[in-house]
Amino acid sequence: MKEFGQKHNKVTKNNTISPPEPVLRVSPWWLSPGASVTLSCEVEHVSAGWSFYWYKAVPDLSHKSGSYSYELLPASSNGTADNSYIIHGQTHTAGYVCRAGRGEPHFYTLYSQPHFVWSGDLHPSASLSVSPDRVQHFTSDSVSLSCEGNSAEWRVSRFLLPDFLSFCSDWGTMNGSTCHVQKIQSSNAVYWCESGSAFSNAVNITGHYDDELLLLSPVHPVTEGHSVTLGCKLRTENLLSKVFFYQNDTIIQSESRVEMIIPAVSKSHEGFYKCQSSGKESPQSWLAVTSTSRPDSSSFPVLVVALTSVVLVIFLFMMWFLYKRSRGEKYYYY
């Protein structure tokens, strides 16, 4: 096991060169249905002969500073000659680590820093909720991040884009399963919950100065057919003058109301939104839409077994019927 944040020196006290630390890159950062995840492991001054090892990061809550244990991914026990590794069928938030080795006996690099692929979809075993429920917040706002699921112990993690990982103990107060943040940092960050065996959905939260205009949009994806309300807010004004709402830089509403209601969301409503009012323009935020027709991956194996059983019963009945018929037996149906 290796703790996140471990550093190394190029040269030790004995004037021996310490192992290099590879850099792991993950693409894409955010999961979409059916997409594969590509991991790339980069070693400084790379030369021939390296084998690459790929690991899943498992949260270790016994260390308050935040650490992970590492489990080898399938087909990685002997290393791969290629410095990339493709993962198929990933549906939930997950963390990954790599390292490289070469020679006999093997000389290994350090482990890379963990990197993550995020899913916004809620999952019953681990979920994160945010209060107030919106993406954009003023830096003077207090925010609560609450974890729910099949665990008695949680920690809340934050990945400050582009590449800095920290935990609630660094910038908030963990009380039971809730992380309380007194002031949101002016930043663009991804938050999620971790238990000893699971990662929750991830949410994107941005912090903005008090003189800025904010778009009020939900932090979680909206399910097709449901309604959603978008708002526009200045910290110093409760009632704004005429408000303009935009989707993907195209104006979609220009009224005196500070809210825009979409009564039945569809996939066409997915995109970047922003608002304008009082001579100011808000930053844009992504509104994700979840399809109602997407099958639950957990129910797929059950469906396959059920269909296979039905086909098998029909096949056996037909074989039995043909056998009886070949012997000249007749059957009457009433």
TrEMBL record:
This protein's source sits in the domain of life called Eukaryota
In the UniProt record, does the keyword Transmembrane helix occur? yes
Which stretches make up the Ig-like domain?
A: 20-100, 124-290
Entry's InterPro entries? Answer: Ig-like_dom, Ig-like_dom_sf, Ig-like_fold, Ig_Fc_receptor, Ig_sub
Membrane-crossing residue ranges in chain numbering: 300-323
The yes or no answer to whether the keyword Nucleotidyltransferase is present is no
Q: Which UniProt keywords apply?
A: Disulfide bond, Membrane, Signal, Transmembrane, Transmembrane helix
Q: What is this protein called?
A: Ig-like domain-containing protein
